[in-house]
Amino acid sequence: MFSSLSDSLDKTFRNLRGVGKISEKNITDALREIRVALLEADVEYLVAKEFIAHVKEKAVGAEVLKSIKPGEQIVKIFHDELAELLGGDQVPLQLDGSGRILLCGLNGAGKTTTAGKLAMRLKREGKKPLLIACDLYRPAAIDQLATVGKQVDVPVYTPDASETDVVKVAREALTWAETQNGDVLIFDTAGRQEIDERLVEELKRLHAFLDPQETLLVADAATGQGAVSVAKHFDEAVGITGIILTKLDGDARGGAALSMRSVTGKPIKYAGEGEKLDQLFEFHPDRMADRILGMGDVVGMVEQVAGRIDEKDAMKSMERMASGKFDFYDFLDQMKMISKLGDMKGLMGLIPGFNKIKKQIPDAAFDPKRMKRTEAIVLSMTPDERRRPEIIKPSRRKRIAAGSGVTIIEVNRLLKQFGDMRKMMKSPKKMQKMMGQMGGMP
Ligand code: GDP
């Protein structure tokens, strides 16, 4: 998401920074390029036009042009306006009353998945969420919510498949909820391929009955301006309180995220960035602006990593490395930790400056298949070999290759990599250099 917009912005701003003295014409030209980039990213025409006008008004101010680093100043103005366009401050969920959340949206937008993700987040925050299936059109949808609920260990209310009255289901679910000791109720509703009268009428009835604290539209970012018009329709029908934008991990152009707030006036509260149930994140406009401008989102990265690996395991592994006692058992543990991180390339995109070098890193470097092969090699070693890899002479290498179904070349490569890692760990200077290089990425 956003990568082509980010590239265009990067190019334009690099040109602007390269100019010794900036004139009003330089700014106008740069903003024209940016406007085209925004439209190409599927940002709504009027939103793009107004946005550019705002930036221009601030950027041609006398102080900016006379300042020592006008290019930098303009980037800052652009960044702040972008964060404003995305909604300004993060808007948290309001759950201090009835705690009822109604999720709505079209089929396939990611409602059911998001219901599970939201339940998981709220649980981590110390709440006791309950999931309630109100999609009476597709029995599969009820089963899907039940499965998701099991995965996140949250109770699910599943109505009888013959039930047709959604308000009756909601009423019975409320009675059930009282026995469950929950404090947040997440209602998953029926969707359609597109908005139709029957869907809207049913949603209106359910909304009127539940009087939810939050009515959140789940919208697929990949549908671009379509997502924005869906949001407008649902808002007119029931009055949404916020938006959850899904599939921000995909390669859509990002226009939905940029136009959504401005067109609907409703905040984007969360962003879905993957199919896994822990891949739902609070939407922070300023951090998103950082990301779009290639400035990274380190806070976001730490949050994503924190939920997925055990801090104790990570510490243990670091200690083993520092003590020089690193063997193939530790190596295997580390690999498992890395694989839990999931989408490594996406994660690394949150590192400042990484977007610029991302293309140079081969996809194979993050290929789960390759990781599996490496794991197979280690698993084909005997316990003694794992502890003392120096005993792995050619005949053992042949056996390991045959046992793991790879070539001897791959076994040799792994042993060489492992040897290099060990050497590096034994040399504090080299470790320091490596850490320094990591900290000083462009
Ligand atoms: P619903 O019809 O609105 O309930 O949609 P589902 O929850 O069944 O989701 C439809 C598809 O989108 C499923 O394959 C989900 O795994 C996928 N999905 C949902 N959210 C995301 C997301 O944030 N990123 C990605 N890549 N896929 C998602």
TrEMBL record:
It catalyses: GTP + H2O = GDP + phosphate + H(+). Residues 267-280 form the SRP54-type proteins GTP-binding domain. SUPFAM superfamilies: P-loop containing nucleoside triphosphate hydrolases, Signal peptide-binding domain. GTP binds at residues 105-112, 188-192, 246-249. The keyword Membrane does not apply. Keywords: Cytoplasm, GTP-binding, Hydrolase, Nucleotide-binding, Ribonucleoprotein, RNA-binding, Signal recognition particle. It is found in: Cytoplasm. It comes from the Bacteria. Part of the signal recognition particle protein translocation system, which is composed of SRP and FtsY. Belongs to the GTP-binding SRP family. SRP54 subfamily. This is Signal recognition particle protein. It comes from Haloferula chungangensis. The lineage of its organism: Bacteria, Pseudomonadati, Verrucomicrobiota, Verrucomicrobiia, Verrucomicrobiales.
